[in-house]
């Protein structure tokens, strides 16, 4: 963890209708998520999020498969000049051309930086996925093709919601997830501006930021949740913060500053959680060969591996083995996050293997998603969920 504006009148009108309909439905069924209004410097409305498409960042040497179901324009990112207008784009390849520019479907352009603008929102297909917004294609000095989906914030959150939380979760849990995801994205946009990468992209579409799948998991329910929470974010002392979330804490969330490079603050201070105990990851056991661990950790010796220090809750803060030590999160990522479900574990030496027995899934910082589900099933509202997992945070509408 861990963009140019695009809009068409028709698409904007459609999104506006969805927002009104969703808000009307929401007001009849549950309390509003927001508790007030806040103004953030430079934020007048929903920003455009620049999403690096990880499977095409960089794209394979052969390029990327592109299709557009309807009219589209190809413009110069530098000057805005119209380079091509098409009525429909069948399966085509976007790639570098021999002359140093870009080519789309056999049509060569002298430009190294293009934007492809569909006339109808959601008709852009990259690889096997459809996306809203526009596509920026950038050819780096090293000759690598980088693809970035530039999409309005609310459409971006619609593409994150179902990718990060099952859409059959209760409405309150989904609303809390939408607010957390929007806060995370707004924070990352600011961070990208500070880091100097904002001209090209703000976030990745994978777990380096938060998972975004375009329109793949958009449903009527998801769109209603997005409309109901439109513009609502979490603030701490009037400022955005990195609203981390994870699947299952296992009994306690942890202070973010112990695992990530963020300042110590109340909303990310961690807290006990009793609401995820009935989840899939209540208990787990994994056996990993010592030879495998040596290779993954990049060391020759993993003897006497142990949890040397725990965070205030239940997660491992420091792991020691063979005279080396790792932060718990670093150890899990090196060992394989797909193999080691969380950092809340104990270790047993079994000769050629180490057996890890633990609870929970994910890094254990911020909002526990399964805990949200548990709280929502008990009748808690989205705002209550957010204030529980981000203690002291303000839940406010920022645009």
Topology:
Elements lengths: L8 H19 L20 E5 L11 E5 L3 E5 L5 E5 L2 E8 L5 E3 L2 E3 L3 E6 L5 E3 L2 E3 L2 E6 L5 E8 H12 L6 H25 L7 E2 L15 H9 L3 E5 L2 E2 L4 E2 L37 E6 H8 L8 E5 L5 E6 L2 E4 H8 L9 E6 L2 E6 L8 E2 H9 L4 H8 L4 E4 L2
Parallel strand pairs: 1-13, 16-23
Antiparallel strand pairs: 1-12, 2-5, 2-9, 3-4, 3-8, 5-6, 6-7, 8-11, 9-10, 11-12, 14-15, 14-24, 17-22, 18-19, 19-20, 21-22
Any key phrases for this structure?
single chain; 399 residues; alpha+beta; 3 domains; 7-stranded mixed β-sheet; 6-stranded antiparallel β-sheet; 8 helices; globular
**Number of domain units:** 3
Mean of all residue-level pLDDT scores: 91
Specify Rg, calculated over alpha carbons. 23 Å
Low-confidence stretches: 1-29
Number of helices: 8
Task: Give a description of the structure.
With 399 residues, this protein is α+β, with helices and mostly antiparallel strands. The protein folds into 3 domains: 6-41 and 155-243 and 366-399, no CATH class; 59-143, no CATH class; 252-363, no CATH class. The protein contains 8 helices and 24 strands. The protein has helices at 9-27, 153-164, 171-195, 220-228, 290-297, 328-335, 369-377, 382-389; strands spanning 48-52, 64-68, 72-76, 82-86, 89-96, 102-104, 107-109, 113-118, 124-126, 129-131, 134-139, 145-152, 203-204, 232-236, 239-240, 245-246, 284-289, 306-310, 316-321, 324-327, 345-350, 353-358, 367-368, 394-397. The strands form 6 sheets. The chain has a 7-stranded mixed beta sheet. A 6-stranded antiparallel beta sheet has the order 7-6-5-2-9-10, with no helix packed on it. A hairpin with a 2-residue loop joins strand 21 and strand 22. Helix 2 packs across helix 3 and helix 2 packs across helix 4. The longest helix is centred in the middle third of the chain and has 25 residues, at 171-195. The chain is globular and about 65 Å long. The two termini are 25 Å apart. 45% of the residues are buried. Residues 1-29 have low confidence and may be disordered.
């Amino acid at each position: 963890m861990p963009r140019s504006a695009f809009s068409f009148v028709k698409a904007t009108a459609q999104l506006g209708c969805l927002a009104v309909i969703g808000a009307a439905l929401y007001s009849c069924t549950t309390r509003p998520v927001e508790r007030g209004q806040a103004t953030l410097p430079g934020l007048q409305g929903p920003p455009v999020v620049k999403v690096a498409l990880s499977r095409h960042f960089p794209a394979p040497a052969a390029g990327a498969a592109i299709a557009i179901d309807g009219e589209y324009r190809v413009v110069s990112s530098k000057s805005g000049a119209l380079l091509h207008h098409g009525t429909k784009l069948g399966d085509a390849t976007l790639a570098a051309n021999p002359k140093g520019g870009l080519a789309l479907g056999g049509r060569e352009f002298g430009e190294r930086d293009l934007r492809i603008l569909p006339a109808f929102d959601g008709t852009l297909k990259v690889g096997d996925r459809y996306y809203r917004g526009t596509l920026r294609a950038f050819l780096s000095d090293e000759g690598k093709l980088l693809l970035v989906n530039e999409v309005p914030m609310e459409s971006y959150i619609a593409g994150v919601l179902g990718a990060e939380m099952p859409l059959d979760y209760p409405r309150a849990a989904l609303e809390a997830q939408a607010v957390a995801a929007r806060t995370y994205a707004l924070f990352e946009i600011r961070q990208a501006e500070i880091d100097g990468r904002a001209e090209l992209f703000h976030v990745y579409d994978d777990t380096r930021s938060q998972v975004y799948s375009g329109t793949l998991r958009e449903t009527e329910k998801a769109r209603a949740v997005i409309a109901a929470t439109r513009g609502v974010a979490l603030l701490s002392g009037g400022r955005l913060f990195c609203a981390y979330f994870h699947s299952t804490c296992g009994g306690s969330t942890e202070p973010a500053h112990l695992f990530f490079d963020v300042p110590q603050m109340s909303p990310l201070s961690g807290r006990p959680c009793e609401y995820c105990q009935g989840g899939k990851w209540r208990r787990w056991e994994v056996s990993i060969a010592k030879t495998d661990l040596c290779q993954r950790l990049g060391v020759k010796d993993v003897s006497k591996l142990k949890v040397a220090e725990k965070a205030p809750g239940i997660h491992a803060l420091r792991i020691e083995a063979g005279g080396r030590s790792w932060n718990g999160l670093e150890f899990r990522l090196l060992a394989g996050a797909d193999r080691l479900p969380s950092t809340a574990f104990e270790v047993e030496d079994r000769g050629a293997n180490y057996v890890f027995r633990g609870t929970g899934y994910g890094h254990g910082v911020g909002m526990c998603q399964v805990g949200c589900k548990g709280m929502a099933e008990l009748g808690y509202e989205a705002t209550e969920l957010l204030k529980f997992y981000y203690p002291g945070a303000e839940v406010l509408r920022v645009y």
